Amino acid sequence: MHNPVLLKEAVDGLQVIKDGRYIDATFGEGGHTVEILKRGGKVLGIDLDERQIFNEREKLRLKLVQGNFKDIEEIGRKNNFFPVDGILLDLGLSMNQIENSGRGFSYHRLKEPLDMRIDLSQSVKASDLVNSLSVDELYETLAKYSEELNSRPVAQNIVFVRRLKRIETVGELIKIIDKAIGKSDRRVYQRIFQALRIVVNQELENLKKGLAGASMILKRNGRLVVITFHSLEDRIVKNFIRDNQLKQINKRVVRGENTIKFERSAKLRIISFN
Ligand SMILES: C[S@@+](CC[C@H](N)C(=O)[O-])C[C@H]1O[C@@H](n2cnc3c(N)ncnc32)[C@H](O)[C@@H]1O
Fold first, then answer.
1. In a domain, 240, yes or no
2. Fewest CB within a 10 Å sphere: which of 21, 24, 128, 176?
């Protein structure tokens, strides 16, 4: 069963009013949307992964669009969700995508291809990056987006191994990492996979553009709720609040439940546009 992260906290943060307009900019499996609908709101659901959208049907008070939240202003205006009362960004991927999409998002799925595209119409896959970037480019990419201390040896071993054979699967990359660091360490896998996924999907640029777009279509006193899953994302949200002199409603950041694996790293910020 799908358990939306910080469901109550996120939807409370939106302060849903009857017939108010809300954009769930990361629709996923619709968990947060269902709760907004229950509380009387109208929802425009956006997801970059067309399979997430096609699994669900539009219903009364719910409109669904396949798109990138970096274009939220345009998508909102086009679909008559302008101005809006609230916007939710629950970043990253859903558990179902990670476990069942077959796109190599999980380091456990050794046989899967190193794809990592959320939007399948996009051309560059993770395997294209690991097979084409120079050792310095790989090092810089991994270090910047994973903050992993072993980025240099991992980059070097990728370039060494691919001289003989293209790197195509999750399992091949895991072996390369193990050899580079001299042991198996899932935290290193997690960080290296995070870096590749961020670059393949341009996740940080999307987030910056999405926040800027959200500020163009939110009503005065409208609410923006953002759930992040790692420090690079959270830093962008904090800087956005500071640079635009916005008000964060929750004095302390709300954290995900420590006992739930998927929620552990979640941080929620509720932002008001005065
Ligand atoms: C954590 S899940 C959202 C789960 C959702 N709140 C729920 O309750 O089911 C994040 C979703 O955002 C989507 N996504 C990631 N980047 C996106 C982007 N730039 N634009 C739109 N959707 C995006 C993913 O495909 C995924 O379905």
1. yes
2. 128
Instruction: Give the residue, out of 34, 38, 47, 71, with the most ligand 1 atoms within 8 A of its beta carbon, to mutate for a pocket test.
Output: 47
Does residue 1 lie within any of the structural domains? Answer: no
Same structural domain for residues 55 and 119? Answer: no
87, burial (CB in 10 Å: exposed 0-12, middle 13-18, buried 19+): buried
Same domain, 61 and 129: no
**Closest atom of ligand 1 to CA, residue 33:** 8
Structural domain boundaries enclosing 230? 7-90+203-273
Q: Which amino acid is at 53?
A: I
Taking alpha carbons only, the member of 17, 3, 8, 41 closest to residue 221 is 17
Q: Which residues are annotated as a binding site for S-adenosyl-L-methionine?
A: 30-32, 47, 69, 90, 97
User: Which residues line the pocket of ligand 1, CB cutoff 6 A?
Assistant: 2, 4, 25-26, 28-32, 46-49, 52, 68-70, 90, 92-94, 97, 118, 206
Q: Which residues of the chain have pLDDT under 70?
A: 1, 259-261
Is 0.70 surpassed by the pTM of this model?
yes
What is the whole-number distance in angstroms between the Cα of residue 90 and the centre of ligand 1? Answer: 6
Domains in the chain, number: 2
User: What is the rounded distance in angstroms from the CA atom of residue 262 to the CA atom of residue 267?
Assistant: 12
Distance 94 CA to ligand 1 centre (A): 7
Helix (H) or strand (E) holding 227: strand 218-228
Model pLDDT for residues 100-110, shown as the tens digit of each residue:
999 999 999 99
In the listed set 201, 228, 259, which residue is the last one of a domain according to the structure?
201
pLDDT of residue 1: 54
Mark whether 118 and 194 lie in a shared domain. Answer: yes
Supply the CATH number for residue 53's domain: 3.40.50.150
Question: What ligand 1 atom has the least distance to the C-alpha of 94?
Answer: 2
pLDDT at 259: 65
